[in-house]
Amino acid sequence: MKKVRFGIIGAGLMGREFASAIARWAHLPEMLVRPELTAVCDKNPAVLAWYRQNFPAIRCFTADYRELLAEASVEAVYCAVPHNLHAELYTAIIQAGKHLMGEKPFGIDQRANRTILECANAHGNVFVRCSSELPFYPAAQRIGDLIEKNAFGQIIEVNNFFLHSSDLDPAKALNWKRQIEINGEYGCLGDLGMHVCHVPFRAGWIPKNVRAILSDIVKERPDGRGGRAPCRTWDNATLLCEALDPVAGALFPLTLKTHRIAPGEKNTWGIEILGAKASARFSTKNPKLLQVLEYHGGEQAWQHLDMGQETAFKTITGGIFEFGFSDSILQMWAAFLYELTEGRPLKKFAGCVTPQETALSHALFTAALRSQAERQTIVVG
Known about the structure:
Elements: E1 2-9, H1 13-23, E2 33-41, H2 45-54, E3 60-62, H3 65-69, E4 76-79, H4 86-95, E5 99-102, H5 110-122, E6 128-130, H6 138-148, E7 155-164, H7 180-183, H8 188-203, E8 207-215, E9 220-222, E10 228-230, E11 236-245, E12 250-259, E13 267-275, E14 278-283, E15 289-294, E16 303-306, H9 325-342, H10 355-374, E17 378-379
Parallel strand pairs: 1-2, 1-4, 2-3, 4-5, 5-6, 7-12
Antiparallel strand pairs: 7-13, 8-11, 8-17, 9-10, 11-12, 13-14, 14-15, 15-16
């Protein structure tokens, strides 16, 4: 079996998820390639200690990403760092000839994103993708299959959302995602927006314009040092767009919601597609449930389908068992390794976010900031 040796830069929450996925790689019996973790970079010694304890084969532990990039054994890098560091680190990784899986939004702003994409274009031998795991849930994959088959007919409306309640408590201490210098002006759009753009963009439903409502709900928080500090990033964003149905040639409303203050929601991603021939709904709040409505005239009825391990990449888990977040991480990484070695995704909706799709998101988010400031609909371009 072919091995791809990885380093992780920014080894916290999502770095540990990737490392755990590597440890579970035997769950994917048909994969002909596997990742091997050989180097880890993080400035927090406590984070590195977790890797030392659980991954004795790692040969390089460092607080300096340059040291990791100098390691000849590292072929690819997962980089999960705050947004203000994306341009510096992503370009350094690409220039070092390492394949890259980066975190969204792929640059703190549109200028940074363009810098990253220019670097990627100049190093065409380096494989570059952006993280987005939630569309790998089985129900979302089934919806992707339906889109590919044009099962929905003319698209009437699409709604995609990602809802948290993680910032509902006003006593929660300020973190970097509330600081505009580190997170960027996009606020919750930079943090969550790629998750709701992934499926529509892959379907070819590109926003033509946007009217954005951005909300700054909790305006200051404890600073962790006994005082208080301002929160200067957007908590919630609702984007109403017009997108073109490339099959029917007609415009339709596309609504994208990214909320960090959504009462009653822990971490809920969902999509609803309404079409002239069929419709579908799915939310991770009930990860087994896919709702499908097929219209042939006369009465309408939603079917409730239970989804199990109907994954893009086959697993050893029985088909009747429930799918979860760690499974979606594993599937996303399988997609990355498959496309890296095969030169193409397994299928259209089983591929990771491309650099070009991140550029589309930056065009949309930049237009959304202008829409909020001017209180009007803005052409996305």
